[in-house]
Amino acid sequence: MIVVEDLRVTFGSGDSLVHAVDGVSFRVEAGETFGLVGESGCGKSTILRALCGLNDNWHGAIAVDREVMTPKRPKTFFKKVQMVFQDPYGSLHPRHTVNTTLMEPIAIHGLDQADRRIARVLDQVGLGAAYRFRYPHQLSGGQRQRVAIARALIVEPKVLLLDEPTSALDVSVQAEILNLLSDIRQVARLTCMLVSHDLSVIAHMCHRLAVMNHGKVYEEMSVEDLEAGRARHAYTRQLLQASLGYDRRLAADAAREGLEVG
Amino acid sequence: MSANAAAAGPHRRRLHRWLTAEVTTSPQQASLQRLYFGWLRFRRNPLAMIGLSILLALIVIALLAPWLAHYGSNDQDLYARLKPPSAAHWLGTDELGRDIYSRLIWGSRITLYIACLVAIIAAPVGLIVGTTSGYLGGWTDTVLMRVTDIFLSFPGLVLALAFVAALGPGIENAVIAIALTAWPPIARLARAETLTIRSSDYIAAIRIQGASPLRIIVKHVMPMCVPSVIVRITLNMAGIILTAAGLGFLGLGAQPPSPEWGAMLSTGRQYLIGAWWLAAMPGLAILLTSLAFNLFGDGLRDVLDPRTE
Amino acid sequence: MASETTGATSPLLTVEGLWVRFDTPHRVVEAVRGVSFTLGREKVGIVGESGSGKSMTGRAILKLTPPNAMVQAHTLRFQDVDINAATERDMLAVRGRRISLIMQDPKFSLDPVMRVGDQIAEAVPDGSGTSKAELRERVLDMLAAVRIRNPKRVYGLYPHEVSGGMGQRVMIAMMLMPNPAMLIADEPTSALDVTVRMQVLAILDDLVTQRGLGLMFISHDLNLVATFCDRVLIMYAGRIVEECRAADLHKARHAYTQGLLASLPRINQRRPRLAVLNRDPAWLND
């Protein structure tokens, strides 16, 4: 469904040139959920932004649903590929009600039966009609993220890109949103890409994953490999250990490494 | 609000409950509720309420001018020239025996007319130029902003003078001239706001919905800029009224015998020593109106400015 | 300096019945509702979700709550200082001198136009009688103590020239200069990359074990607190609903703690669905 070959994205120029994404290749099969894991600034979000057309300054090849992508996307592309952002407080227009937010994609793509679609999608994300005429400031973080998911779903896309969808939420709300995403991806037969810094979230949601650092993919693995601890790259093992919590002995090692590089 | 709601009948209370409902059930209710909450916040600012009352009074006076004024705006009474304030002429009479109180009331129409017309022209022009420039960036931005800079580089009154000199004196031309000097600061403001809005996630989100730049600017960027533009234009209104009065004073705005406040002030100047009320009364009216716009604008800013939310 | 006469067994900090209320136009919001705990020379984790009052508890101890907050406590005692009765002037002698606060993002806490070494030196109270050369030595020692490899080079850097992890270590060095008896760390590692996070935690760990500091570690990360701290307090809606040894967190008795733990995705125990926390209104009051 998604093929990315030798993707490169740079920011700045001259001395301050940064290779945010430095020759990344991967494929995502239809119906699969693929994870990109790495720390802040590793380039994982930049890949998503290039994929969905928000960043048009990239080199390499991107194909979605057997169509080769150019930097500029036609309107039909956005009916096929949708995205959910990290910060539910920033991704909803503060002066638009839930209804206005959901009406926009319907108007843009000229879809019919607006009322029925909105009612159905609100139901699907577990909000119900009572939330239809509320403003974002009247909603909790989890409810806002549900609205953002509803906005992505209303055009019935084939591909859903998720950029840290739960990292701004509390763990109990994270569980609700992850469950919701699991449900809808099954019902709507979605192909998903999930970007996160949290290895356990990636492990919970994805079939396969790529570990990224410094704009490069260090390692691609199945989630079974991850579960069994079959990580080949030292960086992956570090991420794994960190996700299990603090370990005095490992921390001492890390500190020594820090001494060497810091 | 609670005192009002308690004293009022069940109707008022039901309305209050509808407006403050936790769950809004229609788009009308949602937007009215927003307005109502804004109003409740506005009411807590006494100075802003004073500004608003003066402006409302001014509007009422302008509307009811034929009933409030004792004389027509040009009714002369050469036997009663330069009379000080008295029971017959509350604010005195001018050099042609015209009742100043009545002329001020008729003049309020001109002042409001100028203020509204300038706002109607300058605010949309500034908003459109600023948001387009800020959202599209690149060459559009460079060209539009250089044009704005050219307009900004002249002092407002001087530019207005030049335009009026070219177009000929008169109220319509004065309005056009003032509007031409009033939009550039608004365009600057709207552009600055747009630059921060442009990089937000909700604009990224609507771009991913496939919206065109025009749709994004009109439906998503502009609503975010409108409050600060309204605040700005309200605060600028004092300056606009002063500029209009200034043009009138210099004989380039409203022409005699029109009861425009600036023109009245200008003629009154010649009699300042012997008949102070000729200049003082219109001057006071200008001062009060500008002050009211400023106070009102300050209050509006506290309610509308997204940064204070 | 701090009185060291209090015995090792007596707690550094005693909090009893702490309330923090906010007066908003609509209603009074109770952020902290009757919290009691003690802190000795140990690592105590305070965990909770957003709005649980964990950060406000830390701030109330330093009297750093926002102006519209009303703080009330039955007892609020730090060593020989009755914080309850302390004036703003008294607090100046406590804040940053005897209790240090480490915040999430060092970028906002460092002066951008001052060399980091000088900023650390500034943290030493005036009139301590140390010469400039001595002070510089102490700063360099402190930088070494927070595991900065080349203290002399880092001394002369400006805040924008140091990485996030190093910035956080500089912050910790700054906080430690006056030799405090207690540290309040509010999400000190949330903004850091995992590898750096481990180093910063190791430094904090050493400080408690080697210097005998008391550490109040405020975090939303259950896993981290369970593995890093000695004791854990779980906060919900402004109350401490459970207190246990960190190692026994998985045996937690309160339904809220159990629910939180169950809602965490885990790499080694994958489930098709995560358990969802059903909030019981009774938790607000029991």
The secondary-structure element order of chain C is EEEHEEHEHHHHEHEHEEH
Structural class of chain A: alpha/beta
Q: What kind of sheet is the major sheet of chain C?
A: 6 strands, mixed
> What structural class do the secondary elements of chain C suggest?
alpha/beta
Q: Would you write up a description of this structure?
A:
The complex is a heterotrimer of chains A (262), B (309) and C (286). Chain A is an alpha/beta fold. In chain A, 38% of the residues lie in helices and 24% in strands. Chain A has helices at residues 44-51, 77-80, 98-108, 114-124, 141-153, 171-187, 199-205, 223-227, 234-243, 248-261, and strands at residues 2-11, 18-28, 33-37, 58-64, 67-68, 81-84, 159-163, 191-196, 208-213, 216-222. Chain A has a six-stranded mixed β-sheet, with helices on both faces. A four-stranded antiparallel β-sheet of chain A has the order 2-1-4-5, with helices on one face. In chain A, a hairpin with a 2-residue loop joins strand 9 (208-213) and strand 10. The longest helix of chain A is centred in the last third of the chain and has 17 residues, at 171-187. The radius of gyration of chain A is 19 Å and the shape is globular. Chain B has 13 helices and no strands. Chain B has helices at 2-7, 10-19, 27-43, 46-63, 65-68, 100-136, 138-152, 156-167, 171-198, 201-208, 213-249, 261-268, 277-304. Chain B is flat, with a radius of gyration of 23 Å. Chain C has 286 residues and is α/β, with parallel strands linked by helices. Chain C has helices at 54-61, 88-94, 116-122, 132-145, 151-155, 164-176, 194-211, 222-228, 255-262; strands at 13-23, 28-39, 43-47, 69-78, 81-82, 99-102, 182-186, 214-219, 231-236, 239-245. In chain C, the strands form two sheets. In chain C, strands 6-7-8-3-9-10 form a six-stranded mixed β-sheet, with helices on both faces. Chain C has a four-stranded antiparallel β-sheet with strand order 2-1-4-5. In chain C, helix 3 crosses helix 4 (132-145), helix 3 (116-122) runs parallel beside helix 6 and helix 4 crosses helix 6 (164-176). The A-B interface holds A 52-54, 73, 75, 77-79, 81-83, 85-87, 90-97, 99-100, 104-105, 108-109, 130, 132-135, 137-138, 148, 151, 155 and B 22-27, 29-30, 34, 200-202, 204-211, 215, 219-220, 223-224, 306, 309.
